[in-house]
Amino acid sequence: MPYSSTEVLPDAANPCPTLGRVTHYVDSEVGRLGTVLLHRPGPELARLTPRNNDSLLFDAIPWVGRAQEEHDAFAAALRERGVEVLYLATLLAETLAVTEARAELTEQVLRSPRLGDALRRRVADHLSYLDPVALAGVLIAGLAHEELRVSQERPGGLVYALMDRHDFVIDPLPNLLFTRDSALWIGDRVGVTSLAMPARRRESTITHAIYRYHPRFAGTEFVYGPELEHLEGGDVLLLAPGVLAVGVGERTTPAGAERLARQVFAAGLAHTILVVPIAQERATMHLDTVCTMVDVDAVLMYPNIANTLSAYTMIADPDGEPQVDGPAPFLRAAADAMDLDRLRVIDTGLDPVTAEREQWDDGNNTLALAPRLCVGYERNTQTNAQLERAGIEVIPIAGSELGSGRGGPRCMSCPLVREPLKR
Ligand SMILES: NC(=[NH2+])NCCC[C@H](N)C(=O)O
């Protein structure tokens, strides 16, 4: 079955420079991690206030300097294990050196109907003077009312005059930190996702531009686009080569899961998609908040739902049309699709209260660096102890500030290269 192409195997042991064409390839959650995309949090986090943190999807006001230290330690832990770390802001600045990319990203910001013509002209003029690094900074951290100078020669019009001092002319993107959600790789193709929450929609204009215009990604084919039905990367797990699980709930819609199935079937990237309904709540906004993989046949799962999670199985009929079957218990359906007798479950909590606390703090959201080796937040002591007992090594990282956005190591990383799993 042509669901993965073997001609494009990457050399994971051989890190590549940011510029120049490289082969990217991911066919599982656990194959040895070669390259990952991170975003070091910056001034966009300093935009969070008690007035806007809810709509910007943060549960607290992070201490920016400490969040950066925690993030640097996360990146260092990955590099120490031979992982190439790419930074989104660097790729964005390099992308903005391409004239079409700069024009497109600027135009997308200016298109906002909130601006009005006079302010739009003023913002266009302001942005036109910025070099690629500074423009990348504004696209990420936004532009505050106070940061835009207006005068008689450079008027901001009625909109600027009536704007609250605390409003943004360009909204910041504090959730770019969670690079998992705005794009995903399946095999050698990238999918730019379609984010559900208004505070995050503009993120995919950035990932779309990077993957279309940055020389490193020249020729990469797309398996999903931001104009399609809602789909977020945190909901997509590559259970095994050819087998995907897609959570549907607060973010990814059933229509998004069905669209992804059509696209991956048409591209020959998978033969089975398991669609997993999850509660439409903040605590379980993505499938990866309750389930991540830690070995080729093992998942770390929130115990309070492990036995109630169900799945609809989609396979392609001979015309490529998705056929839906189920629901069936998720663990059974997954094992069948993965051709295993059973999927091992590492239970995260000892009692329901500890489980609930550690799930909230992203205990279930681990990033596998290889089979049986993962990164997890150190604060989830009981979850990590359970993992160690099950023979999974945990690299603990601090996340007291990073965690205030409700995302753990998996959310904060988008793998671009993993060693292919042997089938
Ligand atoms: N893959 C994930 N679980 N991502 C977590 C994203 C958290 C982010 N604050 C949001 O609400 O969108």
TrEMBL record:
Active site: 411 (amidino-cysteine intermediate)
Record keyword Cytoplasm present: yes
One annotated GO biological process: L-arginine deiminase pathway
Pathway(s) the chain acts in: Amino-acid degradation; L-arginine degradation via ADI pathway; carbamoyl phosphate from L-arginine: step 1/2
Keyword Protein biosynthesis: no
GO MF: arginine deiminase activity
UniProt entry keywords in alphabetical sequence: Arginine metabolism, Cytoplasm, Hydrolase
Entry EC no(s): 3.5.3.6
Reactions catalysed: L-arginine + H2O = L-citrulline + NH4(+)
Enzyme class, spelled out: hydrolase
Gene Ontology, cellular component aspect: cytoplasm
Subcellular location: Cytoplasm
Family (UniProt): Belongs to the arginine deiminase family.
Name assigned to this protein: Arginine deiminase
Source organism (scientific name): Micromonospora olivasterospora
Lineage: Bacteria, Bacillati, Actinomycetota, Actinomycetes, Micromonosporales
